[in-house]
Amino acid sequence: MRRVFSGIQPTGNLHLGNYLGAIRNWVRMQDEAECLFCVVDLHAITVAQEPKGLRAGIREMTAALIAAGLDPDRCVLFNQSAVRVHAELAWVLMCTARMGWLNRMTQFKEKSGKDREGASVGLFTYPVLQAADILAYKATHVPVGEDQKQHLELARDIAAKFNNDFGVELFPLPEPVIEGPATRVMSLRDGSAKMSKSDPSDAARINLTDSADTIAQKIKRAKTDPEPLPSEAAGLAGRPEAANLVGLMAALSGQSVAQVLAERGGQGFGTFKPALAELMVATIAPITERFNALRHDATTLDAVLAAGAAKARAIAEPVLAEVHRAVGLAE
Ligand code: AQP
Hints:
This is Tryptophan--tRNA ligase. The protein is mainly alpha-helical. The protein folds into two domains: 3-182 and 297-327, Rossmann fold (3-Layer(aba) Sandwich); 202-293, Orthogonal Bundle (Tyrosyl-Transfer RNA Synthetase), CATH 1.10.240. It is built from 13 helices and five strands. The protein has helices at residues 16-29, 41-44, 51-67, 85-94, 99-103, 106-112, 121-135, 149-166, 212-221, 240-253, 257-264, 269-294, 298-327, and strands at residues 3-8, 34-39, 76-79, 141-143, 175-177. α4 (85-94) crosses α7, α9 (212-221) packs antiparallel against α12 and α10 (240-253) crosses α11 (257-264). The longest helix is centred in the last third of the chain and has 30 residues, at 298-327. The chain binds adenosine-5'-tetraphosphate. Adenosine-5'-tetraphosphate is lined by residues 8-9, 11, 15, 17-18, 21-22, 144-145, 147-148, 183-185, 194-198. Residues 8-9, 11, 15, 17-18, 21-22, 144-145, 147-148, 183-185, 194-198 line the site of adenosine-5'-tetraphosphate.
């Protein structure tokens, strides 16, 4: 049986990278497998959060996910801290994971920056909590963006070591699903940095709450080079900003990069950018409209999360009991 799990932090607005890299695949998978999608609030507190803002962010992200196409009747949509198994299993798995494995995680190095000594321990063990999220449901498939590949490999290593240490076949090894032409959407200001919620420059990303005018302005000002588009993908080598915009066009139009270039090779950005902005607005405007209609409806959003958490607990609690039995802990 295929069981899908994935998560997103309730920090900031959903951006086009989150949507094209991950969430669009989640929406599609709802009809193909049993799916659990989680607003990972415990992950959010690995860096400082203002409590009221976090609370509001959980609801806002839930509204955004529903607006983007998740249907709480066809998937389990919930927030992580409502299911205690995540934190409890993370502890057991922290005793399975090795320091050396975590020391190799590049995201910790990027997020802790120069102040590694001042980073929270939670930021360091972030990928173990992520492994617990996935393994608590014995998930087989995990749709994510390219940036999560290393964490997924770690989750597989943890699952394999746990099974081996305790002589059980308890956890399936989860498969990353990294699909589509936009698995790593880059910043609009710097083709070598990923589009990110935490980028201090709002001009670097397209938020799913941006108006049509804002989107048009951001694309118009997006960094590019002076050359026209090549007619083959090889011509994008060494042109990261151009490659990013072409990748976005491909993802939004449902074409391959080769098809986009076959059609638009020779075009300058003065022609290409307005066409790209138009396509973006057509994708984003209906999501924004649904989001605005739902974002302040706390009663509905809380009810969705409570129902999702109950369904999630019903799957995860028996798995934690199995883990306790395997390890020799209290049942
Ligand atoms: N730029 C991206 N391109 C493709 N996929 C992306 N994802 C994130 N950025 C891109 C995917 O979105 C999902 C949610 O990830 P998350 O909650 O960990 O998002 P994030 O890392 O908080 O997003 P940001 O924007 O990168 O936030 P900050 O700046 O706070 O770290 C994941 O599947 C991720 O791969």
